[in-house]
Structure formats: structure tokens, C-alpha cells
Amino acid sequence: MNKLDRNFYLQDTLKVAKELIGMYIVRNYNGTELIMKITETEAYIGSIDKACHAYGGRRTKRTEIMYGIGGYAYIYLIYGMYNCFNIVTEEKEKACAVLIRGGSPEKGINEMSQLRYEKAYNELTAYQIKNFANGPGKLCIAMKITKELNEKDLLSDDFYIAKGKKQNYDIKCSKRINIDYAEEAKDFLWRFYV
DNA sequence: TGAGGGATGGCCT
DNA sequence: GGCCATCCCTCAC
Hints:
Elements: H1 6-9, H2 13-19, E1 24-29, E2 32-45, E3 73-78, E4 82-89, E5 96-107, H3 109-117, H4 126-130, H5 136-142, E6 159-162, E7 172-174, E8 191-193
Antiparallel strand pairs: 1-2, 1-6, 2-5, 2-8, 3-4, 4-5, 7-8
The chain binds a DNA duplex (13 and 13 nucleotides) through β3, β4 and α5.
């Protein structure tokens, strides 16, 4: 696969969030290559964004990786049970990131199906297929993305993002999800999907 | 097809 | 001690 280089991640966060649509998350899990096509992202823009963990320059042990240079994974536990996978963007100290909100399985589908439902893919119901990875927590379950991958460099060989074939996606944008606490920032159109 | 609620634990004040 | 960038089941329609 055609791995993205560092410069890609150093661009404007909204641009990165949009261009990630249609690209691939590649992960080597116990010798099996898992590939997920990205279908939904959200941008979180550092100190100015009330929905961002780094809003107002808030800097803690958890958010420290966001203050580093782009191209690293920021993975955290949400609601006590689920992981969310983010990609840090832009230069050091910007504390911006893109949340991967959804994807569709491309390779290693049966392995991912086992991780997700403990069933072979061809045994899944239509409902389960529809809900395979259409949410940040679900996507992380399917690819076994856990805290162990937090702060990992996405230029590594076993966990990275790869360019898709040149395709024209009809990319839509909308408000972000479940950030009602973020006041005016909840209305920013920083969610992208196909 | 959609609303309602419970599970669950790290993080931060 | 309260808050969460979620998911899934149940139940009604």
C-alpha cells in the first residue's frame, strides 16, 4: 500500500479530515493485514475549539500527544468502554486532530468480523453488516485499535494510513456528533463523510 | 425507524 | 464526584 508521508499530516486539519475520506487504515494484527476504508471523519481544531480536548490550551498527560507533530495516533477511552482513534495533525503545539468516525472493511474482513462479532463475515445479519464500523467505537473494535497503539507513529510499518485509488467521492459535510456541550463550536461543519 | 436508558471507567477539577 | 468525540438492546409504532 502507498503509505502517506509526514507532510500530509502537517496540512490544515480541515483539509486533512476531508482528504482522509476514501483512504485506508492499514494495521498488521498478529501477522494479518487489516485494511479499512475511511468513510467518515471529524476535525478537532486545538485551542479554539470547545469540543477539542485541547481547548483553551488545556494540556494534560492524556492530551500531550496532540501537542506533538502531526502523524501520530491519539487513542483514548470513551464512556468507559470504547476507544476512539484520532490522527494528530499540523505542526507541534497546534494540538489539532482528526477523529476517524467510520469505515468499511476492505481486507482481513473475516478477522475483523471475528473481532467485532465473534462470527464469520458470511454469518452476519444485514443489520450487523450495516453497523460493522459505522462509528468510532465500532471501528476500533473491528481493527482491535486499543490504548496500546496510543501515541504510535503512523509512519510505522504495521499501523499507517495509505492513499486510495484516485476516486471522486461525493464528500458531504455537516455538524459534528455528540458534542452538545461545546456551545457555538457544536455547529461548525467539521464532519466529513461519503 | 426511532426514542430511551443502562453499561462502564479513566480523566480532570 | 461528575463528565464523556459510544454502543446496543428493548419497546412502541
